[in-house]
C-alpha cells in the first residue's frame, strides 16, 4: 500500500475515535444528573430568577428529551463551537474563548519539552546502547530510573528551591520562581492583560511583534524550569526504550554483515542500526503525549504558568463543568492527533506496516 493511502486510512479511522470522545464527554456531563448540569449554567447574580433560568436551560439543553436525542442536540451545538460557559479565577466567559487564550502557552511549553526530549533522550539512548555496561551507560540508567521515580510536582518544587531562590545558594538564584513573565515589565503594556498576550497569545512571539526583546528574554527565562520539569520524566521513557531497541538492532545479523563488509562503526550505527531502532521509539512518542498532558497540569499549577493545565485545575477546584469538559476534549484531541502523527511517521520509517 502506498503511503498516501495508508495516511488516508489512518485519518478516516480517527473520525469514529473523535465521535467516541464526544460521547464520553457527554456521558461525563450527565453523571451528576440534570440538577448538577443546570447548576453549572445558573447565574445567582442575574436579574432573572433562578426558576426562570432553570426553565430556559432545560429548554436549551433539551433535558426533557431522551438521552440519545440530547446527545445529538449537544453534538450539533458542540460542532458549531458552542462548548458552554466557564467561570474561574483566571477567566470567565465561553469555553472556546478560554481555550483560544490559554492553549498557546501550553503549546509553547509542550513544543520546547518535545524538542528537549528528542535532542537529548534519543541520542543518550543510542550512546548508552553503544557503550553498554560502561560508566556512561550506568549513569544514563540511573537518570532513567530517577525520571520514572520522581513525581512531577516534587521535581518542580525542588527546582524552584534550588534555582529560583536563595535557600540553597545565592549564586544559584538564576530563574524566576513562576508565572509567564515579570509583571513589572508588562505593567504598562496594553497588549498583555490577565496573564495573556495579544495578538497571537504566544507571549514570546507577541513580545517580538510589539518590539519588546526584554520581555521576550524574560519569557524564555520563565520557561526554563517548567520545561525541565515537564521533560525529565518523559526523557526517562524515551532513553530507556531507545537503549533497549538499539541494543536489539546491534545484535541483528545485518549489523554483523555490515561490519564484516568493512563499514565504519559510525556508518553501521547511524545508517543501519539507528533507523530500525527508532521504530518502537516513534510508536512510544505518541503515547508519551499522554504523559506530557498529565505533566502539564501539575507543572503549570506548581509554577503558576497560565496555560490550559492551570485553567483546568482552577475549573476542577471550582466545580466548573464547562471548563473541565473543555480541557478534557482538547487533551483527548491532542492525544488522538499525536498518535495519528506517530502512526504516519511509523508508516514512513517501516513500510511493512502499511500492508
Low-confidence stretches: none
Protein structure class? mainly alpha
Order of helices and strands: HHHHEEHHHHEEHHHHHH
Task: Using the CA coordinates, give the radius of gyration.
Answer: 24 Å
Shape designation: globular
- Spatial separation of the terminal alpha carbons: 6 Å
Second rung of CATH, namely the architecture of the largest domain: Orthogonal Bundle
CATH topology of the largest domain: MetI-like fold
Q: Largest sheet, described in full?
A: 2 strands, antiparallel
Task: Quickly name the level 1 CATH class of the largest domain.
Answer: Mainly Alpha
Domains counted in the coordinates: how many? Answer: 2
**Strand numbers in spatial order across the main sheet:** 1-2
Rounded mean pLDDT score? 81
How many beta-strand segments? Answer: 4
Query: What is the CATH H-level superfamily of the largest domain?
Result: MetI-like
Proportion in β-strands = under 5%
How many DSSP helices?
14
Fraction in helix = over 70%
Description:
- With 355 residues, the chain is an all-alpha fold.
- It folds into two domains: 3-92, no CATH class; 95-176 and 222-354, MetI-like fold, CATH 1.10.3720.
- The protein has 14 helices and four strands.
- The chain has helices at residues 3-29, 34-39, 50-61, 67-79, 95-130, 135-149, 152-163, 183-186, 203-209, 213-250, 253-260, 265-302, 308-317, 321-349, and strands at 85-87, 92-94, 192-193, 196-197.
- A two-stranded antiparallel sheet has the order 1-2.
- A hairpin with a 2-residue loop joins β3 and β4.
- The radius of gyration is 24 Å and the shape is globular.
- The model has no long low-confidence stretch (mean pLDDT 81).
Amino acid at each position: 500500500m502506498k503511503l498516501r493511502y495508508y495516511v488516508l486510512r489512518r485519518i478516516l479511522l480517527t473520525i469514529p475515535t473523535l465521535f467516541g470522545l464526544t460521547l464520553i464527554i457527554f456521558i461525563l456531563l450527565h453523571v451528576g444528573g440534570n440538577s448538577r448540569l443546570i447548576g453549572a449554567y445558573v447565574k445567582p447574580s442575574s436579574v432573572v430568577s433562578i426558576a426562570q433560568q432553570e426553565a430556559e436551560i432545560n429548554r436549551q439543553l433539551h433535558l426533557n428529551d431522551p438521552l440519545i436525542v440530547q446527545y445529538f442536540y449537544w453534538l450539533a451545538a458542540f460542532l458549531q463551537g458552542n462548548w458552554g460557559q466557564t467561570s474561574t479565577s483566571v477567566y470567565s466567559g465561553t469555553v472556546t474563548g478560554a481555550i483560544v487564550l490559554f492553549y498557546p502557552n501550553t503549546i509553547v511549553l509542550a513544543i520546547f519539552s518535545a524538542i528537549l526530549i528528542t535532542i537529548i533522550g534519543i541520542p543518550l539512548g543510542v550512546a548508552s546502547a553503544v557503550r553498554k555496561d560502561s560508566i556512561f551507560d550506568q549513569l544514563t540508567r540511573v537518570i532513567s530510573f530517577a525520571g520514572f521515580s520522581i513525581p512531577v510536582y516534587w521535581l518542580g518544587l525542588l527546582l524552584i528551591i534550588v534555582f529560583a531562590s536563595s535557600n540553597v545558594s545565592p549564586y544559584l538564584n538564576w530563574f524566576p520562581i513562576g508565572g509567564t513573565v515579570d509583571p513589572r515589565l508588562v505593567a504598562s503594556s496594553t497588549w498583555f492583560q490577565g496573564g495573556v498576550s495579544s495578538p497571537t497569545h504566544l507571549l514570546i512571539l507577541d513580545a517580538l511583534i510589539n518590539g519588546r526583546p526584554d520581555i521576550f528574554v524574560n519569557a524564555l527565562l520563565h520557561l526554563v524550569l517548567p520545561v525541565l520539569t515537564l521533560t525529565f520524566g518523559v526523557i526517562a521513557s524515551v532513553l530507556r526504550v531507545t537503549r533497549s531497541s538499539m541494543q536489539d538492532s546491534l545484535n541483528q545479523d545485518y549489523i554483523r554483515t555490515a561490519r564484516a563488509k568493512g563499514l565504519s562503526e559510525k556508518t553501521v550505527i547511524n545508517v543501519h542500526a539507528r533507523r530500525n531502532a527508532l521504530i518502537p521509539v516513534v510508536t512510544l512518542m505518541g503515547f508519551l503525549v499522554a504523559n506530557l498532558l498529565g505533566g502539564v497540569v501539575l507543572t503549570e499549577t506548581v509554577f503558576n504558568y497560565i496555560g490550559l493545565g492551570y485553567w483546568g485545575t482552577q475549573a476542577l477546584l471550582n466545580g466548573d463543568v464547562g471548563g473541565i469538559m473543555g480541557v478534557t476534549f482538547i487533551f483527548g484531541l491532542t492525544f488522538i492527533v499525536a498518535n495519528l502523527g506517530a502512526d504516519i511517521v511509523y508508516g514512513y520509517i517501516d513500510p511493512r506496516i502499511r500492508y
